[in-house]
């Protein structure tokens, strides 16, 4: 897979760049369907994108093939970190 621009990712997602930018900035939530599309685009699991852990508390590993560029890997990692932070915030709010 070659380097994907935000415009190309948005096109593959079937959304405009504005919607994609809102997702990336955290001002718009990702639907389950969109999460699946992101996983398909980057050829990783949804668990990987969400940073989920197994019952053994081991991070679910989805290998990133050598054919992914550093830019694509960084984009995936940023998305994972965003999702993890949102998840922790939402669950912390429920505890308070």
Q: What secondary-structure arrangement, pairings included, does this model have?
A:
Blueprint: H1 6-13, H2 17-25, H3 32-42, H4 46-50, H5 70-95
Task: Summarize the structure in words.
The protein is mainly alpha-helical and 96 residues long. It has one domain (6-95). It has five helices and no strands. The chain has helices at 6-13, 17-25, 32-42, 46-50, 70-95. Helix 1 crosses helix 2. The longest helix has 26 residues, at 70-95. The protein is globular and about 40 Å long.
Put the structure in a nutshell:
Residues 4-49 form the HTH cro/C1-type domain. This is HTH cro/C1-type domain-containing protein. It is built from five helices and no strands.
Q: Approximately how much beta-strand content do the residues carry?
A: under 5%
User: What is the helical fraction, as a range of percent?
Assistant: 55-70%
First and last CA, distance: 44 Å
- Classification by helices and strands: mainly alpha
Taking Cα atoms only, what radius of gyration do you get, to the nearest Å?
14 Å
Quaternary arrangement of the chains shown?
single chain
List the keywords.
0% strand; Cro/C1-type_HTH; HTH cro/C1-type domain-containing protein; globular; 96 residues; Lambda_DNA-bd_dom_sf
């Amino acid at each position: 897979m070659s380097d994907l621009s935000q415009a190309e990712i948005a096109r593959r997602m079937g959304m405009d760049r504005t919607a994609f930018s809102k997702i990336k900035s955290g001002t718009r939530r990702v639907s389950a369907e969109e999460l699946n599309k992101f996983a398909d685009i980057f050829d990783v699991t949804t668990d990987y994108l969400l940073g989920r852990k197994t019952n053994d508390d081991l991070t679910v590993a989805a290998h990133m093939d050598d054919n992914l560029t550093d830019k694509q890997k960084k984009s995936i990692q940023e998305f994972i970190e965003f999702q993890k932070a949102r998840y922790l915030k939402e669950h912390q709010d429920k505890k308070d």
